[in-house]
């Protein structure tokens, strides 16, 4: 009956870790380890790489080396600053179906974590709630270093396309304004001026052959025939 009362209290308020205190032995002989389901090749000595918006799954293995039964009832954890060891954020604490573990036995269970952090380096420290006798105990796990990045935006993402259109329109408007204020007057002041040339009528060409045939500097074809006869008569007299 006491066990079910503990479960009820934990379900009502599992958010405050300080509310659960252990008495008796300072430590428990319970080993808890985990691996990351999506990247099983990442070990405790590696730095995991996570992207905001993705979900990671921790696969736990708990070994009960105590002389009495223990029951796993919940999971929690924290993201720490790996340098200062200060808590950046707490994981959403969740309850799992009670899993009883006999002495000398082990059990497996999972925890899903949604990654949504400011891009930076963190240390994930998961924690497991267990019940031993009448006490609720919190078992810390090893830390996992991780680098959190923002999700890359596709070039064809509508948000990016809208931003590009706004930037191009703004840039085009600034160029047009600059041209109207400074560029237009500058271009008009430096443009070359075209000078119109006056067209002269060609001077009449006097045939040299006509002048040379008569010995005069004019063309005899333009002189009336009667006038020529008069000149010839005068020369004979």
From TrEMBL:
It is a single-pass type I membrane protein. It is found in: Endoplasmic reticulum membrane. Keywords: Endoplasmic reticulum, Membrane, Signal, Transmembrane, Transmembrane helix. Residues 1-19 form the signal peptide. InterPro entries: TRAP_alpha. The keyword Signal applies. The chain crosses the membrane at residues 160-179. One of its GO terms (cellular component) is endoplasmic reticulum membrane. Is probably involved in a pathway contributing to genomic integrity. Belongs to the IRC22 family. This is IRC22. It comes from Candida theae.
